[in-house]
Amino acid sequence: MRRATAQADRNREIQVAAAAWAADGAISSASAAAIRDAHPDDRQRLGWVLRALLFVFTWLAIWAGEGMVAAILEPGRDAVGPLLLLAGAGLVVTAELLAGPARLAGFGVDDAVEIAALAHLLVGLGVVAASNLDLSLDAAMVPVLLATLALGLAAAWRYGGIVFGAVATAGLFGFLAQLPAGRVLWLLAGAVLAFVLPRWSRSARLAPAQRQAAQAALVVALLALYVAIHLASNDHDWVEHFNLGWENTPSSLLPRGAAIAGTALLPALLLAVGVWRRRALLIDLGLLLGAASLVTLRLYVHLGPLWLVLLGSGVALLGVALALRRYLAAGPAGERGGFTAETLYGDARRESALAAAATLATLAPAAPPTTPAAGFRGGGGEAGGGGASAEF
């Protein structure tokens, strides 16, 4: 990532934090303005609504333009792959110009160009490997998955963001699934990344966008680890089915007792580590995977109709959440052990996003009035002509 872009990214985070503190009354508006002046953000940014709209428009414009060019040139089959690679290279240059001289960051246009560049390079490489090199689909996917890992890592380092961190990690596990003993490799890779990525996601050496990429990679790695150790996955060869030649791939199943223990203990471990390390992401994942493990229990042990089990689980979780909130609020200064039920300053952007969504929901046209307009007289009317009259 460019030094200027990284510094602007950090300054933006400082400005957002200062605005949240001022909104909560922790600092004055003058102090927030002074912080904003001391940490200027020279990037061109938009709110998430306009950013999403520009992303969609730019994405459609890229593919529509390429469709027109393809209709005019009518390239042969052997030329499709090289043309996609050439277009991907051009989009990389465009992304560099948008991030550099144009100073766009989170503008929507830059996001679409960066993701489109990665998509063109990967699809072009796959087409070249499958057609020009006369490789089968199974064999062509191996270099594509390796390229997904390499290009995803490069994009995560250069631009940051959730998408590239998730894509790079998905490429890693997709490639590992093509190797013998893919399940064991998923377990090893997931365990290593679960240890390394939390440090990267909070490293002061990385820009905020790069830390977001590390967080997304952590989510994908933990989900892959859970799938690799999950009981149903172990019983039905889920990981092995990611191998394109899975019919001829020897299974690498775990002992069933280990899969049962892992399905039950991994969510609890994530929840415990999240509480201990004060990591909301791990707490959320622990709760999510815990719910998945309860559903898995229902699949193997008949506890009643599935809808009733899910309804009862939801009511129980809601009760636990309310009881926990009351417990924290009743503590000294509204907190216990560093935990509080109140909204933290860092959640200001989440609240603003929810407020924006609620505002958009109110933009629907108003319903027509149900009362008659002034001057309207019901009960029929009169019509006539040529000396005749009638009522209706």
Please provide the count of β strands: 4
Q: Looking at the chains present, what oligomeric state does this protein adopt?
A: single chain
Number of contiguous helices:
15
Instruction: Specify the helix fraction band.
Output: 55-70%
Strand percentage, roughly?
under 5%
**Main sheet overview:** 2 strands, antiparallel
**Order of strands across the main sheet:** 1-2
Distance between the termini: 78 Å
Report the C-alpha radius of gyration, rounded.
Answer: 28 Å
Query: Helix- and strand-based class?
Result: mainly alpha
The helix/strand order is: HHHHHHHHHHHHHHEEHEE
The whole-number mean of residue pLDDT values reads 83
Could you say how many structural domains there are in total? 4
Could you please describe the fold and organization of this structure?
Helix 4 (77-99) packs antiparallel against helix 5 (109-132) and helix 7 packs parallel to helix 9. The strands form 2 sheets. This protein has a two-stranded antiparallel ribbon with strand order 1-2. Strands 3-4 form a two-stranded antiparallel sheet. It is mostly helical. 70% of the residues lie in helices and 3% in strands. The protein has helices at 3-23, 29-38, 48-73, 77-99, 109-132, 137-158, 162-177, 182-200, 208-229, 231-236, 238-241, 256-277, 280-300, 306-329, 348-361, and strands at residues 335-336, 339-340, 382-385, 388-391. It folds into 4 domains: 1-42; 44-135; 163-252, no CATH class; 255-322, no CATH class. Residues 348-368 and 378-392 have low confidence and may be disordered. Strand 1 (335-336) and strand 2 form a beta hairpin. The chain starts with a helix and ends with a strand.
